[in-house]
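Go through this chain.

——
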Amino acid sequence: MFRRLLVGAVLVAGLSAPARAAEVDPLLPAETESVLFVNVRQILDSELIKKYALGQIKQALAGNDAKKMLEKLGLDPLKDVDRVTAGSWGKDKEDMNAVFIVRGKFDPEKLFKAAEAEAKNNGDKVAIVSDGKYKLVKFTTDESPKPIYAAAADEKTLIAGTDKKLVTDTLAVAEKGAAKPRLKKDLAALVLKQDEKASMYAAGLVEGKTDGVQIPPGLPGVDPMKLAKQLEKMHSFAMTVRLTTDVSLEAAVGMKDADAADDFGATVENLIMTVKQFLPLLANQQPNVKPLIDEISKTLKSKVKDKDVLVNLKLSAEAIGKAAGSGD
C-alpha cells in the first residue's frame, strides 16, 4: 500500500519554489520518514471552500449526533483547529507507525470527560488506558490495523499516535518545551523547503523504499520495467496543494542524480502527453467536466531542474464549480 501511494505521488501531481519556509515541528519523532501538514485554518478561510464546501461542512456538523458530540467535547472544528502535522514511517501498511500533532484551542478536561463517558457506553471502540503518569484515550476501528492513542498535551496541542509509547514519549517532549527538531537532517531540510502558507503539503525520504515496485502492465506510454528501475533511483518526494480562489497542485520528485532526473523526467513527460490525448474522450462522455479537462490539458506540465522532476497543475474555481454542477 505504501509503495502504491508513492508511485501515485510520482505519477499524478506536482513542487515549485515555496513562498515561505515551513517550520519543523519539534514534536515529530526522530523515526519520521514522511511529513504531512494540513493548514486547516487556511483551507476553511479560502474563497474556494467558502463558496463550494463550507455550507455542506456546517450542515454536517449541525446534525444531531455530530452537534451533541461536539458539545460534549467542547470543540468547534471550524474555529478551534488550526493545523495538523503527521509524521509516519514503516515498511508497509501493517508496519506503519504515525504521530499526529493537532494545534489549536482545546479544553483538555472536557475532552477527557467526554472520552470517559464514551468508553462506558462503547467500550469495544473507546477505552481509557494508563502509561506511567499519563492517561490516554484508546480508539479501535475496523478501518485501521492498529488502535490510535490520544491525549491533550495542553490547551493548544493534542497528540495522537499508533502506539501508546509513541504518544507518551511525545507528551514528555512537549512538557519539556522542546525547541529543536528531532527529524533526520535530510528530512528536516526537505520540510524547510515547503510553504507553511500552503493549504497542505507532504514531504518524505523514500530512498530504498521504491525498490521492487510492481508497475501494473498496460499503462499507455509506460514501459513497466524501465519505470520500476527509474523509481529505484528516487530519493525524496514533496507535494503541495494551495486553495485560494483557485487550486494549484505542485510536486517534486528528488532523484539520485541529474542523469536519473533527466531519465525519469522523460517518462513523466511522456505519461502526461498520453494522459492529455485521452482527456478529450472523457470530455465527450461527461460534458460538464469539459472546462476542467480543458484546464488540465493547458496547465498540467512537467520539467526537470537539477536532480528534481517537477510537475504543476492549476485549476480555476469556475471550472471546478461547473464540474461540480454549480452554475456560477
